[in-house]
Amino acid sequence: MKVHTLVSEDYGENTYIAETGTNKAVIIDPGADYESIKGVLATNNLSAEYVFLTHGHYDHIISAHNFEPSIIYAHISEKELIQTPAYNLSSYMGSGISLKNINYIEGEEGFVKGFKYMHTPGHTGGCMIIIKDDCLFSGDTLFYDTVGRTDLPSGNPRMLKESLKVFERLDKNLIVYPGHGQPFTLKDAYGSNYFLR
């Protein structure tokens, strides 16, 4: 699967545009400015089929309102954070983001449109990772040498510790596309990340 990456100049957040077939793409965490996202779609003759939010912090959802709610998916445990500017921290940035009427999915894991999701609470209560083919989009749950912070609304260090166990049963050759930073293999993370030991 071909993955295009846009990095937010303001927050260093990664927006991923994953090609899923002829002229189709899925957008994961639209935190980059919308014009840049549209530019990648236009240059590659792609249309956004679905949007996944790994979690609801403002830097990952800045451009989400530009997409039809009917194509946006997030975990049900993230609903309050996504809808509340004080919780998703956008109120502190002067933007006041509150997303309504998006598709909320439930359960610890499952499939949506051929993409596997796994609920990984800790960084926030509704964090999830997304897996398709050899790609794992980890949001802010897992980075190369650390994990997401747990001192923000709905964060919980105990839950994050439990969530990290899901990586034990995944293919270590998966390429991890994190919410911030460069991609890495899950195998390499196990060799460098203290929190996975």
Helix content: 10-25%
Average pLDDT metric: 96
Global outline = globular
The CATH class label is Alpha Beta
Low-confidence stretches: none
| Total count of strands | 12
Order of helices and strands: EEEHEHEHHEEEEEHEEH
> Termini, distance in Å?
29 Å
Question: Radius of gyration from the CA trace?
Answer: 15 Å
Number of helices: 6
Secondary-structure-derived class: alpha/beta
Q: What proportion of the residues form beta strands (DSSP E)?
A: 25-35%
Key phrases:
single chain; alpha/beta; six-stranded mixed sheet; 6 helices; 19% helix
Set down the secondary structure blueprint:
Elements: E1 3-7, E2 14-21, E3 24-28, H1 34-43, E4 47-52, H2 58-61, E5 72-75, H3 79-83, H4 85-88, E6 103-105, E7 109-112, E8 115-119, E9 128-132, E10 135-139, H5 157-163, E11 175-178, E12 184-185, H6 186-192
Parallel strand pairs: 3-4, 4-5, 5-6, 10-11
Antiparallel strand pairs: 1-2, 2-3, 7-8, 8-9, 9-10, 11-12
Descriptive notes:
The protein has helices spanning 34-43, 58-61, 79-83, 85-88, 157-163, 186-192; strands spanning 3-7, 14-21, 24-28, 47-52, 72-75, 103-105, 109-112, 115-119, 128-132, 135-139, 175-178, 184-185. With 197 residues, the chain is an alpha/beta fold. The chain has one domain: 4-Layer Sandwich (Metallo-beta-lactamase, Chain A).
